[in-house]
Amino acid sequence: MSLTIIYTIVTLCAIGTFAAVILYFVAQKFKVYEDPRIDKVESALPGANCGGCGHAGCRAFAEDCVKKNDLAGLFCPVGGNDCMARVAGILGLEVVAQAPKVAVVRCNGTCEHRPRVNKFDGASSCAIASSLYSGESGCQYGCLGMGDCVEACKFDAIHINPETGLPEVDDEKCVACGACVSACPKNLIELRKKAPKDRKIYVSCRNTDKGGIARKACTVACIGCGKCQKECNFDAITIASNLAFIDADKCKLCRKCVAVCPTGAILEFNFPPRKIKSEEPADIAGKVTSKPAAPENKTNSSEN
Amino acid sequence: MVKTFKTGGVHPAGNKISAGKAIEELPLPKTVNIPVAQHIGAPAAPVVAKGDKVKTGQVIARSSGFVSANIHSSASGTVVKIENIYDSSGYPKTGIVIAVEGDEWLETIDRSTALKADFDLDSKAITDKIMEAGIVGLGGATFPTHVKLMPPPGMKAEVLIINGVECEPYLTADHRLMLEKGAEIVVGARLLMKALNVEKAVIGVENNKPDAIKNLQEIIKDDNRISVMPLHVKYPQGGEKQLIKAVTGREVPSGALPIAVGAVVSNVGTVFAVYEAVQKNKPLFERVVTVTGKSLSNPSNFKVRIGTAIGELIEAAGGLPEDTGKIISGGPMMGKAVATTEVAVTKGTSGILIMKEDESHRRPMENCIRCARCVSVCPMGLEPFFLMTVSEKQLWDKAEENRIMDCIECGSCSFTCPANRPLLDYIRLGKSKVGALIRSRKK
Amino acid sequence: MNKLLTISPSPHVHATDSVNKIMYRVILALVPALIWSVVVFGLDAVRVTLVSVISCVAFEFVIQKYILKVTPKISDGSAVITGILLAFNVPASLPWWIIVIGALAAIGVGKMSFGGLGNNPFNPALVGRVFLLISFPVQMTSWPALHAVDGTTTATPLALLKEGIKNGQPVHDLMSKLPQVSDLFYGNIPGSMGEISALMLLIGLAYMLWRKVITWHIPVGVLGTIFIFQGILWLVNPDHFIEPAFYLLTGGAMLGAIFMATDMVTSPMNPRGQIIFAVGIGVITVLIRNFGSYPEGISFAILIMNAFTPLINAYVKPKRFGGNK
Fold first, then answer.
1. Which architecture characterizes domain A195-304 according to CATH?
2. If one looks up domain B123-280 in CATH, what number appears?
3. How far is CA A246 from CA A171, A184, A205, B45, C321, in A?
4. C8: chain A residues, CB-CB within 8 Å
5. Residue in A212, A210, A168, A217 with CA at minimum distance from that of residue A188
6. Are C191 and C260 within 8 A, CB to CB?
7. What is the CATH number of domain A36-91?
């Protein structure tokens, strides 16, 4: 019996050694050379594989950084400037710090502002509803509220508010990877430059219909009247196709446009409540989410 | 043995409640809203402006490419505006709004109703007249007919198949047309045969229209080039590929056109319009529309001018019932639900179906139990459960491999699924994404 | 119009079939065999079936509500079917606590751990049965004698056959000890509750085919393969291999082919794939019965082929219109 065991052990060891030798030579012969720096860069990256950089994953991004030997145009939104600085250090390259961005949802068509004119009874997907028809309201540009953006976000940074029916972005968690931007079939989400204290001012509307039609569908629509453009001292506002747009790079967050907008299409976030008005709906966090209708605004500007 | 197509198919309830109603001509509306995109291909370009006076049958928008069609005014009056109007696509599209004044037709149109059976035009002359008249497929697909009559080089038509199947439940416009205008349809068939240079035509009609079959057989009994083929009642027999399979036994290959197997298919309504265009110089500006629904008091088949708001048709059928839940343009299997009664009748509107509130809602979705009924009913041999899953997960390469582009969107899968899964919703989404990917690859 | 119109994508009508209806039709198809088992085994059969069904439904409810935290949905009848099939696969004398453990294995491991209805790769009733067979081999193979009053046990025909062949007895000698074919057909033999009467199971099959719950491909495929394969072996060596008709009518072949292999969730999704699946089951069953150490092999055969189902689905596609490229 013991001889059998010895034969078995010896045979198995011989097979094992033989296989190991073969594997060694094969591995050497067919070895693919990879720049060792790729591994180092990859370990500096967050590893989320979200695609926010425009590449297929963190490894692909690392490969591109090493291959191009230049970090111009390459940015990891999740890792941010810290991460890019580390990558630059590993590769011995220069990197330009980029302004952080955050996603904003450019629609304020809540159930209150934008009444429903029909009921949708299909599969719960914005893409499906959007390809079928113009939506449950009279505004064909507005948010459909079924959460394709929520599905797309890998960072738990966007959720539908059940009261308003609109998505809301969590500024802390949003890394501006752009997944929600591509997911929205109405192109309502935009990556805007992050301001200090998370303050934001933007036109929360994408309706390019004529003013009368837009306003009929939604009470807080942008009617393209141009008052905001006239008021702005920094040339930050452009009007095209009956729609205003605020350039985040030029905007100095003075809030003058918010005050003059007759429909309340321009929203301001994370500002302290205004001192003048008492009937303004200020809440505890100091966040003003929508302006009251025209009459109060007119009073305000005349007071100014 | 009554012929049919072999793969898949379902049997929705027929509900042909308006089959006995003769076609009734509706009075003219006060305004007509005529979209410039009523066909597959590039929208037509308007050739009139606000304030212009137009006559019935006058060209108001010209075809803007090879795959495009002319649009004609369906009434006489003044152009009020050219602006966005809602049509059954669900989105506002450019349309020409005309305030109707009287009904003055173009002098060139022959308004007599006597049958004109003789013609001595050649193939090109016939095709040109069809193109000028703005004829598109009236079965619902609205493909410009003149394009079908000009096959790509190297391909030749062998048989003209006339689609009198009308497999959608509720719709009866084609049925009535075959009963009342059978002789005209046969002349139209001969015109198309001349245009295509074929010696054989088959009119396919489902077995639930025995009177139409008999009427047509009687009319063509002396012409041995044309025959009527009764077909087994099964949805979607009226689908082009399924019809070709049943009539000729040939299957159109994936991604190819029917002309690849020598067949050209045309709806009976289109064939009738061809007759009127070539023999009476009458362009396409009116069509027969079935207005139906279990809750309507007077389900009927109306001859209406293009651009009439569907509200007028519903009024003539007894008025919109209180318990209406859905208004569908087309049939219940492939029609589009519309949001208002101001939507205009277009060349592709085959019917208006009113559904009661209690039949308008889908049942809640459940887990897929892998019963494979969707696979067994798919007329194209696809696997809808799989195509839905890959579309949900956005795996477009897998969708393409599994022939998602072959889907004819007939709805048999969603109709059958015992778990009420929205199969076709996701497959359509997949088709649009994969289609876009394919187009971007070709560039 | 006060109410809002509904807009949905086509189609706007739906066939009347539903998951519930399909499940209830299967339960109805199982009723003849259930009645027969009560006739033969008496109240024991009722006890076993009730315990099995109630535990399966209860476990599904509890797991859905407290572990998966979803709205419990037990009304679709699928847990009831698993309960009945599990009961059909065990001896009528099985103690109640073993049945409950089997139900937990069937529903908890075989179905819920994969995500509930529609997500399980293996037939839950068979998972339960095989689990019990391996864990409690003695209790699972003590078959009560027919119309037994005092708990006497006997061996099933297949077990007798296996023992006999192992001991070297030629088949035609054994045939005198084994029941007649008519007994096998009507079900006057010892065995698991559901598998004894071929006739009752065939009535169930006819009902399911008529109501279009299943198609003929899998039952005919399994039984046909068993018949043909065993037929070939029998022709080669009639002393060592029994005639194929015997194999069709004994053991779980009928029950397996008609009710277990045809489980929609775990079988392939087009006819060609189903035939491949059925042939695989038939071959493995005959192999295990003749050359393996278990007298009955169909449960294992079905579970093994269940594992192949995703592979079959991936490579065997339905016939495409316009030609498979």
1. 2-Layer Sandwich (3.30)
2. 3.40.50.11540
3. 19, 21, 11, 35, 53
4. 120-122
5. A168
6. no
7. 1.10.15.40
Distance from CA of C319 to the nearest CA of B (A): 6
User: Taking CB atoms and an 8 Å cut-off, how many pairs form between chains A and B?
Assistant: 36
Contact A131 B426 (CB under 8 A): no
**CB crowding B293-326: b at 16 or more within 10 Å, else e:** bebbeebbbbebbbbbbbbbbbebbbebbeebbb
Distance from CA of A178 to the nearest CA of C (A): 29
Cα(B272)–Cα(B258) distance, integer angstroms: 21
- Helix pair angle (B182-196, B123-132), 10° resolution: 120
Using the Cβ of C5 and the Cβ atoms of chain A, whether some distance falls under 8 Å is answered with yes
Q: How confident is the model at residue A302 (pLDDT cuts 50, 70, 90)?
A: very low
| Facing residue for A134 by CB, picked from B90, B336, B426 | B90
Residue in chain B closest to C263 (alpha carbons) equals: B371
- Does the pLDDT at position A295 exceed 70? no
Per-residue pLDDT of B150-204, as tens digits, reads 999 999 999 999 999 999 999 999 999 999 999 999 999 999 999 999 999 999 9
Count of H-run helices and E-run strands, chain B: 13, 17
B432 chain-A contacts, CB cut-off 8 A: 131
For residues B135-142, give the mean pLDDT. Answer: 93
B432 touches chain A (CB under 8 A): yes
Task: Verify whether the Cβ–Cβ distance B7 to C119 is below 8 Å.
Answer: no
The 10s digit of each residue's pLDDT in B362-411 is: 999 999 999 999 999 999 999 999 999 999 999 999 999 999 999 999 99
Q: Which two tokens stand for residue B300?
A: 């009927």
Distance separating alpha carbons of residues B294 and C175, to the nearest angstrom: 68
At residue C150, the pLDDT reads 60
The pLDDT, as a whole number, for residue A285 is 43
Peptide bond into B236 cis (omega under 30): yes
Residue B186 burial (10 A CB sphere; 0-12, 13-18, 19+): buried
- With a threshold of 0.80, does the pTM exceed it? yes
Which band of pLDDT confidence, cut at 50, 70 and 90, is reported for residue A54? confident
Q: Chain B residue closest to A135 (CA)?
A: B90
Q: Do B418 and C17 touch (CB under 8 A)?
A: yes
Confidence of residue C1 (pLDDT cuts 50, 70, 90): very low
Widest Cα–Cα separation across chain B: 64
Distance (Å, rounded) from C-alpha B151 to C-alpha B145? 11
Nearest one of A142, A181, A215, A187 to A51, comparing CA atoms: A181
Amino acid type, B248: T
* Fold observed for domain B24-100: OB fold (Dihydrolipoamide Acetyltransferase, E2P) (2.40.50)
A89: phi > 0 → left, psi -120 to 50 → alpha, else beta; which?
Answer: alpha
pLDDT of residue A99: 82
Residues whose CB falls within 8 Å of the CB of residue C186, separated by 6 or more in sequence, listed in order = C197, C198, C199
- Chain B CB contacts of C9 under 8 Å are 422, 424-425, 428
- Measured CA to CA, the distance from residue B406 to residue B383 in angstroms comes to 11
CATH tag for A100-194 (out of 3.30.70.20, 3.30.1330.10, 3.75.10.20, 3.40.30.10): 3.30.70.20
| Residues C221-250: tens digit of each pLDDT | 999 999 999 999 999 988 888 888 888 888
Q: How does residue C30 score in pLDDT terms, banded at 50, 70 and 90? A: very high
What is d(CA B147, CA B65) in angstroms, rounded to the nearest whole number?
Answer: 11
Helices (H), C14-42: 19-41
The per-residue pLDDT for range B76-125, each reduced to its tens digit, is: 999 999 998 888 888 889 999 999 999 999 999 999 999 999 999 999 99
Which one has a higher pLDDT value, C68 or B44? B44
Q: For A213, name the nearest residue in chain B, comparing CA atoms only.
A: B84
